UniProtKB/TrEMBL annotation:
Pfam families from the UniProt entry: Methyltransf_12 (PF08242)
Gene3D superfamilies to which the protein is assigned, alphabetical: Vaccinia Virus protein VP39
UniProtKB keywords: Methyltransferase, Transferase
Location of the Methyltransferase type domain: 69-166
Transferase found in the keyword field: yes
Top-level lineage group: Bacteria
Protein name: Class I SAM-dependent methyltransferase
GO terms classed as biological process: methylation
GO molecular function: methyltransferase activity
Length: 267
């Protein structure tokens, strides 16, 4: 991000009353920009390019024949990358235009069993009719849009079958407090209030002309995430930190840029 955020009125976890509406308007407007961007490169994806980070398939393991739910799936590239590996996938996102685009993309690549559902992540259990999954997957840039990680972890636990697991791959919260060049700390790692940004464009096209530019986000430390999962009854199998994979930071910084974890629900 290129501008300094302002703290929302008050410093509780909920943020401004319209945080969800502001964020949804922002994402809805950016869907067509992302679909035509070189960042997502849909022609290459349709031709067979994989959108997952190099370590993700190895850490998740064989997904053939397993049911996988992707929370906050956006336009579905990661969801469909798991489908190409044999999983029966469901993608869920609060943006109707994103879900429509994901469904169209599934048709283009022949992922006939993939389905996409429009719902807020906190409403996922109800929206999916109580269905549970072998794997719940959450990819990069998702948790910053959620004010309540404890509620998120409980939702994940409710969506897993006994013996199923969460796989989370996310931008490292340390990297998120760094400047664009990675050389300075710009934000407080321990800030837990809502952060309000007002920025035109999008990470996929910085020069794009946009109108819905206000977003509300939250920083979540690794300790906060792991503790929430433990409180929800999930057992941590591993937590790995990686020195590459951040969309905006250069390589060779010798700092953790992303992290991944797997947490299992008891049988």
């Amino acid at each position: 991000m290129t501008t300094t955020p302002s703290l929302a009125d008050g410093t509780d976890s909920t943020g401004p009353a319209d945080w969800r509406e502001a964020n949804q308007a922002n994402w809805d407007e950016r869907v067509p920009i992302h679909l035509r961007s070189s960042f997502y490169d849909l022609p290459a994806f349709v031709a067979g390019r994989d959108s997952l980070q190099d370590f993700e398939p190895d850490e998740v393991g064989d997904v053939s024949g397993r049911s996988l739910l992707h929370l906050q799936c956006h336009i579905g590239l990661d969801t469909l990358s798991w489908a190409r590996r044999g999983a029966t996938v469901t993608g869920l996102d609060f943006s109707g235009p994103a879900v429509a685009a994901a469904g169209e993309l599934a048709g283009r690549i022949g992922a006939d069993t993939a389905r996409f559902v429009t719902a807020d992540v906190y409403d996922a259990v109800e929206a999916l009719g109580g269905q549970t999954f072998d794997i719940v997957y959450t990819g990069f840039g998702a948790l910053c849009w959620l004010p309540d990680i404890t509620r998120w972890a409980r939702t994940v636990a409710d969506l897993l079958t006994p013996g199923g697991f969460l796989y989370l791959a996310e931008y490292h919260p340390f990297a998120d407090v760094l400047s664009e060049d990675g050389q300075a700390v710009e934000h407080d790692y321990f800030e837990r209030g809502a952060l309000v940004f007002d920025e035109p464009g999008t990470y996929a096209d910085l020069g794009a002309q946009t109108r819905s530019n206000r977003t509300v986000e939250w920083l979540h430390g690794i300790g906060e995430v792991v503790s929430a999962l433990a409180a929800a009854g999930l057992r941590l199998e591993f937590l790995h930190e990686h020195d590459h994979g951040h969309f905006r930071l250069p390589a060779g910084l010798y700092v953790p840029q992303v992290y991944s974890l797997r947490a299992v629900k008891a049988r």
